[in-house]
Design brief:
alpha/beta, Metallo-beta-lactamase, Chain A, Oxidized Rhodanese, domain 1, 16 helices, globular
């Protein structure tokens, strides 16, 4: 939205389904919930000849490390949290109802505990006193609300039940009485692990959310608690670590990248990997990794939900990492790791996999087949492993397939045969290549990956079982 004195922009990063917000009025600007890499916000303010006055945080984030500390240091902006926040660095701890001015615009703090105890919503008021919108953080999404089970992992006396009850009252006493024509600006969209049924839309009117969002419908407090807590998946293991980094502070991204941007020739790369017991992470596309890769490396491609799967599959956030990337993607890989707190990249393979091969070092490959080849196999005698989410498998799957969700694969390794051949697939080849790389790293080489995944299987002549809703017999 923009008028002569005011503009608000949503800055959306699809790979982690994250929305930051830029507000500008009469030469002053504010940033809400910035990502770790802050230069784009500085550049945006410079383009508008504006000075960044405030960095507002809706809460201590779990799914990414916020860039508030670096941004404040580089711009002299003040960091603002809502009531009850207790970070280990200097901030303005706003009171409920406190108003901040950015140019002719006003930003009112509304304390809305529930997702976390310090969670706050920011009400946007234009120069004429008209309330325009609300930046809701993880309190209210489009089609959903923030899950109330995350903060309990870092605060001992909290439970998901207590947080859900706080959220019930915050929504009904602080958010729902606001005007229907307000624009809702949430922190996340579909794909984020901070909710369970978020819409692909990233803004909406509050009035429409009151009509369509399941959590805003009339119900008792107990019914609300049951509704928001049902169906929550286990949060990725890096979430509590990110919360603590956002509370306690962290090393500047500039210093992290300075250490990470260490080009290593193949000999040095191999030596460092061995001496440091570093994880070799290959961020190239699945098809390129399958053709040739460094033995014992794992593949999590940049062209997918990279951050989420790094967080799911690399358990130790402090694990030292060596990168193999597509040429020119080295820094992007480092930044996207640091977005979620993986700050221990110690170098990358200079010249990529081609340099490795040219230097005479061994490479490995993953056997892949297309669905048309799968159709002619006798699957009665071959195990097929489906690494999609359990909900995807339950919805529809290849007849006879075995469900082993990717994020649970390390707990089910005994189910994969060592001697007989087996087949592995996901929805479209991205997750199954992650699984394939992990299995190969652990000693399996007797399997093939299905290139097109279940999307191709569903279009083939192979038998697919679909979920049928049970009927009630009268």
């Amino acid at each position: 939205m923009e008028n002569s004195n005011f503009k608000i922009e949503q800055i959306y990063t699809g790979c982690i389904a994250h929305a930051a917000y830029y507000i500008e009025s009469n030469g002053e600007a504010a940033i809400f919930d910035p990502l770790r890499e802050v230069q784009p916000y500085i550049d945006r303010a410079s383009k508008g000849n504006a000075k960044i006055k405030y960095v507002f945080l809706t809460h201590f984030h779990a799914d990414f490390v916020s860039g508030h500390l670096d941004l404040a240091k580089k711009t002299n902006a003040k960091i603002v949290y809502g009531p009850t926040a207790k970070p280990s660095y200097e901030v303005i701890k706003a009171e409920d109802g406190q108003v901040f001015e950015v140019g002719d615009y006003k930003i009112k703090v509304i304390h809305t505990p529930g997702h976390t105890m310090e969670s706050s919503t920011f009400l946007l008021i234009d120069e004429n006193g008209k309330e325009h919108g609300i930046i809701t953080g993880d309190t209210l999404f489009i089609g959903d609300v923030g899950r109330p089970d995350l903060a309990q992992h870092v605060v001992e006396d909290l439970t998901e039940d207590k947080l859900a009850r706080h959220l019930y009252h915050s929504l009904r006493e602080k958010i729902m009485p606001l005007s229907d024509d307000l624009i809702v600006y949430p922190n996340h969209g579909a794909g984020s692990a901070c909710g369970k049924k978020m819409s692909k839309e990233t803004t909406d009117t509050l009035g429409n959310q009151k009509k369509t969002n399941y959590a805003l419908q009339e119900m008792t407090e107990d019914a609300f608690v049951k509704s928001v807590l049902t169906g929550l998946t286990t949060p990725p293991p890096y979430f509590p670590e990110n919360v603590l980094m956002n509370i306690k502070g962290y090393e500047s991204l500039d210093k992290v990248l300075e250490k990470a941007k260490t080009p290593l020739n193949p000999g040095a790369f191999e030596a460092v990997a061995t001496e440091n017991m570093a994880l070799v992470l290959d961020t190239r596309d699945a098809k390129d990794f399958a053709k040739k890769h460094i033995p014992n490396s794992i593949n999590i491609g940049l062209n997918g939900n990279f951050a989420m799967w790094v967080g799911e599959m690399i358990a130790d956030i402090k694990q030292e990492i060596l990168l193999v990337t597509e040429e020119g993607k080295e820094e992007e890989s480092m930044v996207r790791l640091s977005r979620i707190g993986y700050d221990h990249t110690i170098g990358y393979l200079d010249g990529g996999i081609n340099a490795w091969e040219k230097a005479g070092f061994e490479t490995s490959s993953i056997n892949r087949i297309r669905v048309k080849e799968l159709e002619i196999l006798n699957l009665d005698n071959t195990k097929v492993f489906d690494v999609r989410k359990k909900s995807e498998f339950d919805s529809e799957h290849l007849v006879g397939a075995i469900s082993v969700p990717l994020n649970e694969i390390s707990n089910h390794l005994a189910e994969f045969p060592k001697e007989e051949k087996f087949i592995i697939h996901c929805a479209g080849g991205y997750r199954s290549m992650i699984a394939s790389s992990i299995l190969q790293q652990r000693g399996w080489d007797n399997f093939v990956d299905v290139v097109e995944g279940f999307a191709g299987i569903k279009e083939s002549k192979l038998a697919v079982t679909e979920y049928v809703c049970p009927t009630t017999l009268l």
